[in-house]
Design brief:
Blueprint lengths: L1 H25 L6 H33 L4 H35 L2
Helix pairs in contact: 1-2, 2-3
């Protein structure tokens, strides 16, 4: 149980760092539209990657502790699928932001 709580704390700290890093970059100068969009992209990627990592961890722990119980194995597979979707969205978010930049004209 100690190791699980340490892993959870480490994941939370990493997630906080990922969310606060764009703020430090944005505080360096006057905000521009391009800078705001880049900051938004960093926030989205960080949030999605953090949540996907959390779901991957939960799915892995559930799968290892399932002990052959089909219900628990299915819950683990669902969490792992959610993690895969989260990583896919994190990978695609820069493409979505680039499309938005071309629409806005920045």
């Amino acid at each position: 149980m100690r190791n699980a709580s340490r892993v959870l704390i480490a994941l939370l700290l990493a997630g906080c760092w990922l969310m606060l890093a764009p703020l430090a970059a944005a505080a360096a100068g006057a905000p521009t539209l391009g800078g705001v969009i880049d900051s938004l992209r960093l926030w989205v990627v960080g949030l999605l990657a953090g949540l996907a990592t959390l779901f991957l961890t939960i799915g892995g722990v559930r799968y290892m502790t399932a002990g052959g119980d089909p219900v628990q194995v299915e819950r683990a597979k669902t969490a792992l699928r959610s993690a895969a979707i989260g990583y896919a969205l994190a990978a695609l978010s820069p493409v979505i932001v680039a499309i938005l930049q071309s629409i806005v004209g920045s």
